[in-house]
From TrEMBL:
This is Basic membrane lipoprotein Med, substrate-binding protein (PBP1-ABC) superfamily. Its main location: membrane. It holds the Pfam family Bmp. The keyword Secreted does not apply. It comes from the Bacteria. Residues 194-222, 309-334 are annotated as: Disordered. Keywords: Cell membrane, Lipoprotein, Membrane, Signal. InterPro entries: BMP_lipoprotein, PnrA-like. One of its GO terms (cellular component) is plasma membrane. Residues 88-211 form the ABC transporter substrate-binding protein PnrA-like domain. It comes from Brevibacterium siliguriense.
Length: 388
């Protein structure tokens, strides 16, 4: 294809992207010397997940506005075969950087990138190191935050029962669940003597709480998340910590519905005394303003990760988002200057954090201080988040 024809093809693709791809946004306020598309693929919750998908798309749009890309294109896919088809489609439109978000398409990304060594790819939260050289990766260590989430959930619980769930394939699943349990155990060791102990919920096949129930892993679908919430809440679990994509959205949506039902029912004049325990969620993703059930948030700092990897990404004066100075000079890869091929976000480097939400702080005044204290104890080595 001639340069002029390629330019026309890319311009046409950018113009119709919003009609062809689910959740697309393709605009080019200023023409670059060379057309460069930033393309994104996310499954299964897509870019409305209030987590890594939404954060990465937001950053791609920020980069487009700053001239890093001439346009952006995003597509939600349903599974592995759809990921492969989306990768092939984006390859035909000469995407400069193609990003695949989540572990669901990690294998397809690796295979496609190996077959197209001249293209540049980025895997976000894929949970694997086994990637070709032309695939950059950004992942987050969620084990320490899961420990803090377990302790915080126990603090926030009114029933004494709390639960964590992971979607199948979610990175660090077993370690996340072990850390959550260790956080609950530490709460029980350090709580005031007059407070009841907290229990880490393990659903059995029948749905009842059990000390030796089935693994706490579910399909990454909204229906599975909804079912998990209903089973848990029916067993008096009032604080849930879901890790996943569509499944997590199913949990928080169901928690919102239940909260509305319960608060509406307790507003009648015939209701006396304290109302029922309301569902609460410790969320993995963006700040919890989108849901009144959110009491604390584990936030992956996608912005800091991208700014660390790409020196030409729009930078910030915010110290929580500013990228550290690279130890060595950036290398040129696929037309981009790359400072780090792999970003591993941790509590120590600001790549991931956990914060209490304002509403939660108003009920448990020392929640924010407790989270800060636990974070510092983990950093100092006093606490092993997988053992407590």
């Amino acid at each position: 294809m001639s340069p002029s024809a390629r330019s026309i093809s890319l311009a046409a693709f950018a113009a119709v992207g919003t009609l062809v791809l689910t959740g697309c946004s393709v605009t080019a306020p200023e023409a670059l010397e060379e057309e460069r598309l930033g393309c994104l693929i996310s499954a299964p919750a897509g870019f409305d997940d209030h987590s890594a998908g939404a954060l990465t798309l937001e950053e791609a749009e920020l980069a487009r506005g700053a001239g890093v890309f001439s346009g952006t294109s995003s597509q939600r896919v349903s599974g592995g075969s759809a990921t492969s088809a989306a990768l092939d489609r984006m390859h035909r439109h000469d995407c400069a950087l193609t990003t695949v978000i989540g572990p669901g398409g990690a294998d397809e990304l690796a295979d496609f990138a190996a077959a197209h060594p001249g293209d540049l790819f980025l895997g976000v939260a894929s949970g694997t190191d086994d990637l070709p050289k032309n695939v950059l990766s950004m992942d987050f260590d969620l084990v320490p935050p899961a420990f803090i989430a377990g302790y915080t959930a126990a603090t926030a619980s009114e029933t004494g029962k709390v639960g964590a769930v992971v979607s199948h394939g979610f990175p660090q699943s077993d370690r996340i669940l072990a850390a959550f349990d260790a956080g609950v155990d530490l709460y029980n060791k350090e709580k005031d003597e007059d407070l009841p102990k907290a229990e880490s919920y393990r659903p059995s096949t029948g749905g009842a709480a059990s000390a030796s129930g089935s693994p706490r892993a579910i399909d990454d679908t909204r229906d599975a998340g909804k079912d998990y919430f209903e089973r848990s809440f029916a067993s008096d679990v009032d604080v849930l910590v879901p890790f996943g994509s569509a499944a997590a959205m199913g949990v928080v949506a169901s928690a919102d519905e239940k909260r509305i039902d319960l608060t509406t029912a307790t507003q009648g004049p015939e209701v006396d005394g304290e109302g029922p325990s309301l569902p609460k969620v410790v969320w993995y993703g963006t700040a919890g303003g989108f849901s009144k059930t959110i009491v604390a948030t584990v936030e992956p700092n996608v912005r800091r990760g991208l700014r660390t990897m790409f020196p030409d990404w729009p930078q910030s004066k915010n110290p929580d988002e500013a990228a550290p100075a690279p130890k060595t000079g950036p290398e040129e890869i696929g037309g981009f200057r790359v400072a780090d091929r792999r970003y591993w976000g941790t509590l120590d480097n600001g790549g991931v954090r956990i914060v209490a939400e304002d509403g939660f702080l108003s009920r448990v005044s020392d929640a924010g201080r407790g989270i800060t204290d636990l974070r510092e104890r983990i950093k100092s080595g006093e606490i092993d988040p997988e053992k407590g």
